[in-house]
Amino acid sequence: MIDEILKILIWGTLIGGCYSLLALGLTLLYGVARVVNLAHGSIFMLGVFTYYAFSFRYLTLDPWLALATAIIFTGLLGVILYRTTIHPILGDEVATLVITITLAILIQNLVVILFGSAKVPLINPMGEKFFNFLGVTVSFTSAVSFFLSISLLFVVALFVNKSKIGKSMRAVSQDREAAMLMGVNVNRLLVFVAFLSAMLAAIAGFMYAISSLGYFGYAVYYMWFAPLTSSFAIVILGGLGSVKGSFLGSFVVSYSQQIVAVFVPQGGGIISLAALVVMVAILLIRPKGFFGKRVEMEE
Amino acid sequence: MTLLIKSKLADSLRTVKSYSVRAYSSFIANVFDVPPRLLAFLCFLTLLAIPICWFNSFGGTRYLPIFIHASILAILGASWDLLVGRTGQVSLGHALFFGIGGYVSGILYEQLYGFSYYLTTSVLLMVVLVAVVIGVILSVLVGLRRSMRILLMVVLVAVVIGVILSVLVGSWITIPVAWVTVPIALAIGTLLALLIGLPALRVKGPYLGLFTLCIPLIVQSLVTWPPLYWLTHADFGIVTPQIIIYPLGTSLIIRKSVEYYFTLTLLFISAVAIYKVAISKTGIVFVSILDNELAAKACGINVTKYKLLSFAISGLFGVLAGCLYSHVYLPKVYPTDLGLTNSFLPIIVTYLGGLGTIYGPIVGAYIYTILDDYALPNHFLPILRMMGVNTPYYETKNLIFAVIVILLVIKWPRGIARTIVDKLDDLAKPRDIEERGPRIWKKYKKEQKEGRLRKIFSRFKKKQEEKEVKT
Question: What residues 44-103 of chain B have any CB closer than 8 A to a CB of chain A?
Fold first, then answer.
């Protein structure tokens, strides 16, 4: 029993770090542009597949260089997708949802056409090592990813709070017109936020795919959906547009998923059910989430 | 005395007769008060099939399934359009309704009836009883009119009496199982739609979209979950009962044409029903919710009730489409029916035709299906193959339609059918014809107008003269 609880705590914490990065990009884009990006999971997947393409399939770069290139490339792709598809219909809720889900389908099918529908192995730049922590086997890669994601989170939080661009982001999320009057170039800011969110998604995707948090060093075309569900559960739990909320929510969701995976027989297949149950409960109890609407984009 | 009574009786009879005739004619007028274009389009489809049906050499068995599929998708698209285009409640998970009907029906067929083709009447009546009870609960929940509730109660009592009688007399009539399982599936689907509609009361816009997107995929993961294999058979799918049981030796062309007309009839009924709902008072309330929910609330509209009603109607027709797909088009239902692609289908179909028009998705469904089932695999794919592109068809097709939908949403949100209809309306306006038409036409119109004016003027004069004479 204690073993299982330890397992839930450790694995939940490790996965929570990865989820919080993913949810951060989502919540930033919502906070600034009021866009619910259903294609966020697909951008996450695109990050993984661009890494695969650069490191193995089309170019054989050094893994670290390939990773850096893939992250920037995915950020640029995110900007292109944002400018071409989401920007023209900004403000129309139905159209935004339809467009983003269509983008998700487009990217999934593009990935199948380019890379095939079978699982493809990824090169792990850190090598695969395991160590024992309180009786639970933890892979070196996932521990590194956890610390990396937490530090990235702090960097982004600092950026949002202290820097000029971060301050203008917060201003736009509070009142768009007033921010425009104060001289914030909203369109350029939105492009920047799209770039940042796509980059964060790519980093999260790489961590999720490479380590034993998610796919144990493989990439598949359907890997976008489960993270998308859980990240939406997180964002709804914390309130859309709240950075602090998404940080706390990611751990709640990852712990609940681990509980399902450990205690339910063959629960691995219905992990996303746990996220959904959390989401439905929150939607029914408190539709705006725990940090939503009242305090937006604060830390 | 007797004569007087007789004459009075005759009088009253006459009035009753005239009233009934009037009521009947108004009923008929109400039922057929659909836009003539929708009617014309459906009639055109009916006529279109005749040559295909009766000349087997033309390839009826090959082409009829395309039209069957199109009719099914048209129902699905129209139901989505009522919910999203008319009420503004975003549903990205119509695949749930599309898949759940077949699953309910198939599970009942296998687990309760053990693959028997026919069913005895008493069981049927028991089942109808259950369905009516569900209906009564729904009606109370949604708040139907009192007369409708009384009608439902009468039906309930009749069914109870029927059940008792049938149990007493014994089972003597048999009917296909599907006639029982499909109504149950419809009832359960409607109930499920209401359950999904419940969060919609508190949740708006993006949150609702996410919620509806997730549900069918979660159901899909439950269906493929190994511990439930005994019930759902995971990827192997469930065999569903046949709605129409043909006598042995019926040729394929006859079967296909019967299926075609069956689905077309159901398309006709559901399109007219959805259209009637959309243009009724209820439909106007739906549009008011779409436009401004707060204002609708302030006007004293019970927003809760109408949102639930919209979900229930949309869910009912969505399940109907799903049942047709998994009973008539295919004899089986698979977990992929609950997949994302099927949630995407009504979106493609509706945006092709035009959002917010009920006739749009019907036109869109035919265009989509002809492209998807005929034109792309037969004409587009060989070109790609010749060019040396060896991509799998399914993904290529999805890619193409995704691009089309994105372009439509951004550049041409009115869609094909709506643009054509708007053009026709423009042409039908006399003012526009005057502006656009040749000079002779203009002159003719002008004369006609003057003539009309003269006539009106003369009539007015006559009236005035009469008045003067009277005074």
Answer: 84, 88, 90, 92
